[in-house]
Known about the structure:
Elements (H helix, E strand, L loop, with lengths): L2 H35 L4 H25 L10 H39 L25
Helix pairs in contact: 1-2, 1-3, 2-3
Amino acid sequence: MQPVVVAYALYLAITVPLTVLVARTLSRHGKTFLEDVFQDKQALAHSVNQLLVVGFYLVSLGFVTLFLTSDDTVLDARDVFEMVSVKVGTVALVLGVMHVGNVLVFNGIRRKHLNHVTPRPAPAPQPYPGYPAPAPHPAP
């Protein structure tokens, strides 16, 4: 078997499970976060979580696949490890950036939801101690 094929196999054997691990982590913790944001709409929280996970899989596995090929000359085991390390490192950095992007999306959803929550009414002012309470105004 050619060394470049071994490098490709190692690359896929590392990056695909890494992508799945990151997606599952995002799904698990994102679900909890979205359920908190959409307290009264559990189905919406689940749907938004699934859509974000599917989008993450499509983009990250698409990148992994596109980044598979290489013009490097791979002659021995050292070249295999050097090529695989550069490729896996790049994929890990891209997954990290995508993770930060997902966190920002979750935060934006949370912020937008919290802005639409009705504010509590201001408490009635308390009279000063020792002074009589003001007389109520008659209703107009």
